[in-house]
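lol ok so funny story. i was supposed to be doing the assay writeup but got distracted and ended up predicting the structure for this chain instead. priorities right. anyway since i did it might as well share w the group, maybe its usefull for someone
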Amino acid sequence: MHRSPRIIVFAKAPVAGLAKTRLIPALGEQGAARLAASMLTHAVDQALASAVGPVELCITPAPQDPRWSGRLPRSASLCLSDQGTGDLGERMARAARRALDEGQPVLLMGTDCPDLTAERIRSAATCLLTSDAVMVPAYDGGYVLLGLNRFDAYLFSDIAWSTSSVAQATRSRIEGLGWSLTTLPALHDIDEPDDLCWLRRPFEQTSARHR
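and the output, tada:
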């Protein structure tokens, strides 16, 4: 019997000067933060709408930090957790191990990809019924979702995060472990000013107001 996967959404507080800093030249600090807030809400909404399993929002700084005041999505079914210390790999490894140790497959996702819809999340969850791992690559060489039925810290250690080699390095490691991997079609992350052309409504309006 297959257990429902836990969706863990990784997010940073959408605070001016902290979130989406690479978009500040195009949008300004406030505009970048406002877009980050819209994308955070959208990611959580899509994760919940996928209805494939429990949804956890794993955040930095910790949930009780005042920078989250008034900025956390409101949903009774959403579980909050603290990303903790370390680089992105250490934070994701901790979260993935926690879910897998509890016997749940895990889907790790961020908030940078508005095209990661509930339907696509459901597709990834379905892939975990027959594969050890599933990946939705990003066109910039990273990935927007990684799903796992098994844990190995090797997938998260000594990866050059935020570079164009992340997806390929992760794919090679999964194959090196002898695990089966399903790769779904690539999607666009919104990280750099040039990525803003991939935004659709209502995100277009959010960013245009602050240029």
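Helices lie at 24-50, 88-101, 118-127, 166-176, 203-208. The longest helix spans residues 24-50.
back to the writeup now i swear
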